[in-house]
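Hi team,

As requested, here is the filled-out complex form for the zinc ion run. I kept the field names the same as last time so the parser does not choke. Let me know if anything looks off before we queue the next batch.

— J.
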Amino acid sequence: LSILGIDIGGTKSIVGVADESGKLLAHKRILTPNVLGPDINIGMILPAADEVVQQAGDCISAIGIGCGGPLDRKTGTLHAVANLPGWEGICLTEIFSEQFDAPAYLDNDATAAAMGEAMFGAGVGVEDLVYLTVSTGIGGGIIIGGKPYRGCGENAGEFGHAKIVPDGPPCNCGDHGCLESLASGTSIARIARESLAANPKSTLHTLASSPDDITAELVAKAAAQGDEYAFRVWSEAMYHLGLGVANAVNVLNPRLVVIGGGVTKAGDMLFEPVREVVRQRAMKPLVADVEIVPAANGDLVGLMGAFAIAIENRMQWK
Ligand SMILES: [Zn+2]
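And here is what came back:
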């Protein structure tokens, strides 16, 4: 018996089939730009899911669906999700359950990614783990005692909205100075754009054809090549990210902090400064307990999380 995993995002989605140990049998990426709305996007996800199920050539015993929150896990329904406009009230579990004749489970993608890393990734055998995703925004998931911690309203793990700079820039959540407003991919690009004109010597002027084309990846690249301005912007963002991680370490005393998401493609340029800030700023005994590592599931962290959702729920009915 196999598991169908569905990772739904605002720009792309991934569907895949794995066996019950999380071994990937087939997968497919599809572009699902959120401007197309739910009907068209679900209309693209369903045939792609059919295709991977055919490829894997096995019966589906459970379906896991990971999606940005807020959502209602018990009814399998989305609330108003910022990066999926128009999806509010859609019962995703019903749609996929009917199509594939198997029970379907919906969960927050960051919690799912944390479970995926704990079951099949960097956190195998680790009981206390924090997962952080640093991409367009910053999200997170918490595993305590081997189980996901969700909080009373199921919205725990919003590390992206930890307050880092009291009078910092405005944030998507309506507050300001949050980690996300200082260190997400979008924020790094925005910060680099803001003072670019005042730094005429920066190679970002030539690396990007227009300021609008500046991305966090480009800032990291320019910084690695020795561009002073880009290095300053990047280092400050990593300092703030390190403070965010240090706060998580002090509050939760995890054994492992796993960081995934597009911005982690910068590799050591991200992990080295973050580890250094945590070493300096978190409390010593907690620093001694923790390791900070990249997500082992890489680009498939969301899909592996979707498998983990299905497996976790199946274990609960046994
Ligand atoms: Zn915020």
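Two things worth flagging: The first helix runs from residue 37 to 56. The two ends are 16 Å apart (CA to CA).

Thanks,
J.
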